[in-house]
Amino acid sequence: MKRIVCFGDSNTWGYVPGAGLERYGEDVRWTGILQKLLGERARILEFGLCGCESGLKHRNKCFNANAQELFPSVLFAHLPVDIVVLMLGTNDLKKANDWQPGDTARNIRALLAVTRTLSPATRTVLATPVLLRDGIESDAEFSRAAIAQSAQCAEEVAALARAEHIPLFDTNAAVHELGADGCHFTAAAHKAFAAGMAELLRGLV
To answer: What is the value of pTM for the model shown?
Structure first.
């Protein structure tokens, strides 16, 4: 049985759009559906955190949301790990981070280096961050500029995967429905994401 760590932000945590801090159940979140689809081939080890950023330029006042600090501990705690699925980038686009092209790729490249150091045999799959849509401006932490930036961010994650010769999952080819907040997966989106991810992972497990 392959051990797969899924490390990401609120769309991995299962944030219900427009519902405060309500979380989809395990049977609705893409990680839970993925477990059912892969069955005994894999054990899905979920780590989703609302607000998680690939590398902070400011500090969340409530909890640590910096993947650079969190990821090494999460990876080490779950060893042995066969595959890591990383989906980060959306929260990098918050106004406080003053996102610039290259920021997300540079941070994720550092996470790849962590994996190669702690567990050289572990394979990584990168999932592109979601393309933000109208409604994102309802979150005071984002501006409408984040919509265009999200397309740039997704492309740089894809380019990084190509450069590093690692598997890439195109989130936005699989997910066609977001909540009214323009950011978070609906239940249907979780199902679609899981189906596409399962298809990719079957080739690795």
So the answer is: 0.95
